[in-house]
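so im writing up the methods section and need the Ribosome biogenesis protein Nop10 record in one place, dumping it here so i stop losing it
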Amino acid sequence: MTGHIRQCPIDHTYTLLKVCPKCGAATESVHPARYSPQDRYGKFRRVVREWNR
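--- predicted struct ---
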């Protein structure tokens, strides 16, 4: 078990487990990705994000 809070995308239950205790679906991390000012690929991700709008 890790110390990071996770959330079930189906029933929105918060848990510390990788599998939801209510429905058995895989949980997702609720924390955003780490930010780094030296991000090499940030420019490309922003371009792709603009294309998807």
